[in-house]
C-alpha cells in the first residue's frame, strides 16, 4: 500500500506537508513511503509493523531525529546507507526485520558503526564502549543495496520508478494452506473450514485482490501478537458478527 499525501495530512492533522513534524503510521500495511521525500521538516516517524523494504525516501528527511521501523521487510543492512546522511537522527528502532540476521552482536555493531550519533537503538541506550567496539566489530556500509533481480528476469523497481515489467512477478505475500488457515481460525475461536470449501479461501483471486487480502491478513496476524486478552476478545466478537453477516448473505444468494 502506498502512503499518500492525503493520508499523511490526515494522520498528522496538518494542512501542508512542510508543516508535518510527527507521523504515526503503525500497522498500516505500507510498502511505498516515497511521500517521505516531500517531508523536509519531519522529526519523528513511526512506521512499525508494515511491509516497508526500502529506506531511500527517508534520506531526504534532514530534520529526522526518531525513526521507528520495527517489524517491517527490510532485507539488508545496506539500507542503513540511506540514513547516514541524516545529521539529527538519534533514535532508531529496527529490530524484528530480516536484516537483523541471526547474530545480534554483529547487527548492533554494524548499525552503530554506520550511525555513531545514535543515542538509542532498539529501545536500548547506546554506550561509549559500544561505539568504540563498533569500530572493530561492525561492518562499514559504503553503498546502498543493489537492485534484486526478480524471478521473471526484471530488476526490482524502486518505489518511485515509472518503469514497468511486462510480466507479473511471483507473489511473495502469504499463501495459507488449509491447515494454516484452520489454525488461525482456531486461535480466533472460529470453526475450521471444510476441505471441500477451502477453494474459496485459496489464492485463486485476481492478483490485485489477492495481494490486498494477504497484506491485510498479514497485518492482522502481526497485530494479534500485540493484543492482550481484552483486545483479542473484541476481535473474537467482531469476527463472529462479520461471519454471521457473510453467511447470511451467502444464504440469500443461494435462494
Name the structural class: alpha/beta
Strand order of the largest sheet: 1-2-3-4-5-6
Q: Number of helix segments?
A: 6
The largest sheet is:
6 strands, mixed
CA-CA gap between termini: 37 Å
The rounded Rg comes to 21 Å
Q: Give the beta-strand count.
A: 6
How are the SSEs ordered, and which strands pair?
Elements: H1 5-12, E1 22-24, E2 44-46, E3 66-68, E4 91-93, H2 104-114, E5 120-121, E6 124-125, H3 128-137, H4 178-187, H5 207-224, H6 229-254
Parallel strand pairs: 1-2, 2-3, 3-4, 4-5
Antiparallel strand pairs: 5-6
Helix pairs in contact: 2-3
Can you walk me through this structure?
The protein has 255 residues and is an alpha/beta fold. The chain has a 6-stranded mixed beta sheet with strand order 1-2-3-4-5-6. α2 crosses α3. About 13% of the residues have low confidence.
